[in-house]
Amino acid sequence: MTSGFFNGIERIQYEGVDSQNPMAFRHYNPDEVILGKRMEDHLRFAVAWWHSFAWEGGDPFGGPTLERPWHPQDDMGRARMKADIAFEMFELLGQPYFCWHDADIRPEQGNFAENLNALEEITNYIGEKMQVSGTKLLWGTANMFSHRRWMSGASTNPDPDVFAYAAATVKSCIDATHKLGGENYVLWGGREGYETLLNTDLKTELDHMGRFLNMVVEYKHKIGFKGTILVEPKPQEPSKHQYDYDAATCIGFLRKYGLENEVKLNLEQGHAILAGHSFEHEIAVAAAEGMLGSIDMNRNDYQSGWDTDQFPNNTPEVALAYYYILKAGGFTTGGTNFDAKIRRQSIDAVDLVSAHIGGMDICARGLKAAAAMIEDGGLDAALSDRYSGWNTPKAASMLESSLEQVYDRVIDEDINPAPKSGRQEILENYVNRFV
User: Fold this and answer.
1) Which residues are catalytic, by number?
2) In this structure, are residues 253 and 232 in contact, taking their beta carbons and an 8 Å threshold?
3) Which positions make up the binding site for Mg(2+)?
4) What is the mean pLDDT of residues 321-342?
5) pLDDT tens per residue across span 136-158
6) Which of 8, 63, 340, 383 has the most CB atoms around its CB within 10 Å?
7) Which residue numbers belong to the known binding site?
């Protein structure tokens, strides 16, 4: 028996590029084989519980616009109803995964013990639904940014009691993720940062954050959790400055605290844009250091200048993201989650489903374009040609030389190099052939 929330919406099918049906996939065919692997296994889609079911449609200037049958989200009965409807949507879309924050799936109860009881109750209920549906958990995480207790951070809070509360919260969420067979656990430090340096001891806060993350890794191994621990970069908002600014900052932090072999990155397109980067830049940086874990596939409104969390709709951007993911070997435990929300004027159930259809199709188009570029080999050939000078023994040996030896070579051989074109426009035209 269904809830009736999705009345009139049938299971979404793949109908191909010529379909005029707005409630069908035109590009996402889970069984299509791309580079020797099923499309579903490449993309590993996951519905994000928070924006899809917990978000009520508010913004900084106005209250909720989305009136759902599980609102207000303040008791366990409505939490179970929300879970029922979530799994109905997973079934409609054929989504293999989902992901959650603890505060998305259970109501706030006021103290830790009551929140823990609520979390255990709802994850038991979700576990039963997972067994029936076959839908899996991509990752779980703790919301340590919404409640007022986190206003000065969680692991970086100047109050040791808040640090303790954060540690207990993360333990409970790792336990729940482990129980549900989650393939990753994510930590996002939305308030791990500062509003002003006038009341902030940077070194102390970073040291506490480093120790906190080491405690998480130690606990993961103690309980035998086989999933990957992920951290998620973002430069600011809600904090003025967040310590997990971008991929490079996070990698430096992880190396400083001895975590580079234990923790990988969950990268979000919208966060990359806020940091002044492209999404493919963040992916390439993480991949170069062996720290690419998973992605949040959303976008920002480039006119707004803040984290608008919109569904992807730009094939060229998405294609380049998947190009660098595929070049790095693809996902292992990670995947593609839609950390995206419908607009607050899109109030109907069909809007929620349609947003996911569109996002999944754009990702499928991007994946196919990325795979075609890899099979064609044009970008690889251009890179190989540009760096070919380093393939000579003389050039290679220079990296083992001293500064004085290189100096002597320039003098002895009268080296006076002429600039060589980077061919950027030609390569941009090349990419556009595929997207």
Assistant:
1) 101, 104
2) no
3) 232, 268, 271, 296, 307, 309, 339
4) 98
5) 999 999 999 999 999 999 999 99
6) 340
7) 232, 268, 271, 296, 307, 309, 339
